[in-house]
Amino acid sequence: MSADFARLAAEIGKIERGGADVVHLDVMDGRFVPNLTIGPPVVASIRGCTRLPLDVHLMMARPERFLDPFIEAGADWLSVHVEADVHLDRTLNHIRARGKRPGIALNPATPLALLEEALPLADFVLLMTVNPGFGGQKFIPSMLKKIDRLREMIVSNGYRTRIEVDGGIGPDNLADVLGAGADIIVAGSAVFGHPDGASAGVAEMKGMAAGTQKGGVGRPS
Ligand code: ZN
């Protein structure tokens, strides 16, 4: 959502050249979050201009209604908010049954305890590190401890769930976020607002991550 929506193909080309591993798409419904962004037709258009996996973050009420339209539009990863879906088990199983990667998203104030039963069903957990709805917000510092506690929860259970972090992440706090245990970094403003352009923005963060963590950031396995 930080890209220029009138030039999405060119914007995605820039992040591909910078070495991005995934394209993260923020779907907002004006109800679960106080903003509106894109729906399946735009996802389908984006699908036509990149081979990178499309990571569709459904910031919407009752996301189960729209799983199939987004999958048919070309989504590869789909995350739904635990706060928005009362049938998380069914939703995550449906995404997997359709051959896609299911993820669970949590708002900053939502406790990790809500993940307990559903964690084995998810390939990744998306921790919001700002309150969802708008780009350009500041990272909430207490989220570092939450990343660390989630890492502990995953390791102690022997799961292989990856941790994705989303909101306010850039070169100034990337090392802290990786150090806390994040695997996949979503960056919007830090990339598209980079003074040398989006390619340089991705390349800078990828370079920093390669020095911090073996294997780089967000590489789909
Ligand atoms: Zn997002």
Major sheet size, sense and barrel closure: 7 strands, parallel
Could you tell me the radius of gyration in angstroms? 16 Å
Q: Count of helical segments?
A: 8
Shape, please? globular
Main structural class: alpha/beta
Share in β-strands: 15-25%
**Strand segment tally:** 7
Termini distance?
25 Å
The set of bound ligands, ions and cofactors reads: zinc ion
Q: Assign a percent range to the helix content.
A: 25-40%
Mean pLDDT: 94
Spatially, the strands of the biggest sheet line up as: 1-2-3-4-5-6-7
Poorly predicted residue ranges: 215-221
Give the topology string: H per helix, E per strand: HEHEHEHEEHEHEHH
Can you put this structure into words, describing what you see?
This protein has helices spanning 8-18, 40-47, 67-73, 88-97, 143-157, 174-180, 189-192, 198-212, and strands spanning 23-28, 54-59, 77-81, 101-106, 124-128, 162-166, 184-186. It is of the alpha/beta class and 221 residues long. Strand 5 (124-128), helix 5 and strand 6 form a beta-alpha-beta unit. The protein has 8 helices and 7 strands. A 7-stranded parallel sheet has the order 1-2-3-4-5-6-7. The two termini are 25 Å apart. The structure holds zinc ion.
Q: Could you outline the blueprint of secondary structure elements for this entry?
A:
Blueprint: H1 8-18, E1 23-28, H2 40-47, E2 54-59, H3 67-73, E3 77-81, H4 88-97, E4 101-106, E5 124-128, H5 143-157, E6 162-166, H6 174-180, E7 184-186, H7 189-192, H8 198-212
Parallel strand pairs: 1-2, 2-3, 3-4, 4-5, 5-6, 6-7
Zinc ion binds at residues 24, 26, 57, 166, 186.
